[in-house]
């Protein structure tokens, strides 16, 4: 059976922003999923994602799930710059 993979590096303005987004996304990543597996690593001002899925639909669902958290975190940081 063919597996589908996605590798994504997100770069932030500084280490603090990357850590905030990492902490927002990690609870969704650690959940067990039957059709996909996601790994995440925060290094300096970047976050690296690796998603491996059994099918394209599961890959897209995993990607959409954590990207919603990333986008929301970024919007909150932009709206409330003094919060962190």
UniProtKB/TrEMBL annotation:
<comment type="similarity">
    <text>Belongs to the CTAG/PCC1 family.</text>
</comment>
<dbReference type="InterPro" id="IPR015419">
    <property type="entry name" value="CTAG/Pcc1"/>
</dbReference>
<protein>
    <recommendedName>
        <fullName>Transcription factor Pcc1</fullName>
    </recommendedName>
</protein>
<dbReference type="Pfam" id="PF09341">
    <property type="entry name" value="Pcc1"/>
</dbReference>
């Amino acid at each position: 059976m063919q597996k589908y993979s996605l590798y994504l590096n997100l770069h932030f303005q500084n280490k603090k922003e990357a850590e905030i987004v990492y902490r927002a996304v990690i609870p969704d990543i650690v959940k067990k999923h039957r059709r996909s597996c996601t790994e995440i690593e925060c290094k300096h001002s970047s976050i690296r994602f690796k998603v491996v899925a059994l099918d394209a639909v599961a890959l897209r669902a995993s990607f959409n799930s954590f990207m919603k958290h990333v986008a929301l975190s970024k919007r909150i940081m932009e709206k409330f710059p003094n919060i962190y």
